[in-house]
Amino acid sequence: MAKPALMPVEEALDLLLSQAETLPAETVPLDAALGRVLAAPVVAGRTTPGRDVSAMDGYAVRAGDATLGAVLEVAGESAAGRPYPGTVPPGGAVRLFTGAVVPDGADAVVIQEDTSRDGARIHINEAATPGRHIRKAGGDFRQGETVLKAGHRLTARDLALVAACDLAQVEVSRRPRVGLLSTGDELVRPGMGAQAHQVILSNIYAVGGVARQAGAEVTDRGILPDQMEATREGIRAARDAGLDVLVTSGGASVGDHDLVAPALTAEGAALAVHKIALRPGKPLMFGGFPAAQGIGTHILGLPGNPVSAYVCALLFLHPLLRRMQGEAGIGGLELVAAELAVDMKANDHRMDFMRAEIVGRRAGIPLVRPMPVQDSSMLSLLARAGALLVRRPHATAAKAGEPCEILPLED
């Protein structure tokens, strides 16, 4: 009997993302908004600058008066936050400082370096040009203008813009609530004095880190032993905890001790996929606990091998969480063009994500070299890698210098 076909990586990702429902919106203050995804556009609450202001220290003048060699009387001063109350008179000037309102009557600014002052008079050493050195009202943005669109993830620069729009809070998607559930009799937490036959739990740190980078709130749901009833109890508790995504690690294959899939099914989960044409990470599954409408809790079952778990989290969990927050443009693999630094053999039927080093650049294009060992248990090589070198299914042999694709690892 022929083995069932493995699902292609991109097909599995499309299927997973098609099930993602955008989380409800909430309003947060700006100091809690960094990295959050806008659920509604940001509309400016004011015009900036609110008036014409000076871009330099100097003098506000009428350009027709400020010709080369002219002498003008200084009528007063305008500083940031303290505008000159009157109008620049004919033959006059008003002392200005950067950011100060340009008084009525003036249509140019002569910078300080292009004048010489004698008491209450200035000598014009370079003729004024209308509009020069003036920041026009509304030159940055105007009241009612949309400055950021819904679906945008807020950066530090964005927060400055929102604040300048006279807005103290923004409407964003709620953070996804992610629970991490580990399985395996061999697992011991770091710092507990593990024996030689035991394995130190590391997946929750890498997978949890990927989830947090995508904007999620992450909780550790503990380690389950390789016992069906204990596995079901742990899954049942996670199901009832109000999670948006339950991520399991280990027990996703078909061995005698791989209990996660049957335990999930016994607790009411619907599993959509179990095997992916992926290396590392073939034993991957996803589905969900059904709710009254749509998916109540998404389930992503990752392999136990730490490199496989990390790669699968990067490929599937990260975009899922971003899509759930309504982030714009999420879909498909976000690959970057690169160039091979070494020859590569032909690939088989699985899509390969090889740990690789970026060893240089040619015309701005990264030069990549795969690590000599690709064992999915070796974290030291993953920590050294700067990218995952992608080899498509059935890719032919390639020579050094030929183009390739990478998934950068930018923590």
TrEMBL record:
It catalyses: adenylyl-molybdopterin + molybdate = Mo-molybdopterin + AMP + H(+). Pathway: Cofactor biosynthesis; molybdopterin biosynthesis. One of its GO terms (cellular component) is cytosol. It is an enzyme of class 2 (transferase). SMART domains: MoCF_biosynth (SM00852). This is Molybdopterin molybdenumtransferase. The keyword Membrane does not apply. GO terms for biological process: Mo-molybdopterin cofactor biosynthetic process. It comes from Ancylobacter defluvii.
